[in-house]
Amino acid sequence: MWVKKGVITIIDLRNDYYLVAFSHEYDQYLVLMDGQWFIYDHYLTVKEGSPSFQLTSETIKEVAIWVRASGLPIEYYDRDALHFVGYIIGKTVKASFVWGIWTS
């Protein structure tokens, strides 16, 4: 769970865009680098602002997504193989394993 270190100010810019200002650099770092952010099951696309941002013409050109590969054969449970499968979809940012143990 993220525990903020400073004040966070959120301003509604219209068109489903928000400006978020951080009083502590660590909070900004966590928001930009540490996660996928959701509000009520809605994914938030987060990016650092720029002086050239135009509210009326801005478009989202790429989005980081998480892909779950259910039923993938065990021989593909290798970091290089997962990256290869990921690159078929697009640029791979991270490949990780989630193992579950079930008993009855």
Task: Characterise this structure.
The longest helix is centred in the last third of the chain and has 11 residues, at 79-89. The protein has two helices and four strands, in the order ββαββα. It is elongated, with a radius of gyration of 18 Å. It is of the alpha+beta class. Helix content is 19%, strand content 18%. InterPro entries: At4g02000-like (IPR040256), DUF4283 (IPR025558). Residues 1-56 form the DUF4283 domain. This is DUF4283 domain-containing protein.
Rg (CA only)? 18 Å
Low-confidence stretches: none
Percent of residues in helical segments? 10-25%
Number of β-strand runs: 4
**Strand ordering within the main sheet:** 1-2
Rounded mean pLDDT score: 82
Tally of contiguous helical segments: 2
Order of helices and strands: EEHEEH
Number of domains: 2
Based on CA inertia axes, which overall geometry fits? elongated
Major sheet summary line: 2 strands, antiparallel
Portion of residues in beta strands equals 15-25%
Q: Which structural class do you get from the secondary structure elements?
A: alpha+beta
Note the gap between the termini.
32 Å
Architecture blueprint of SSEs:
Blueprint: E1 8-14, E2 17-22, H1 25-33, E3 37-39, E4 42-44, H2 79-89
Antiparallel strand pairs: 1-2, 3-4
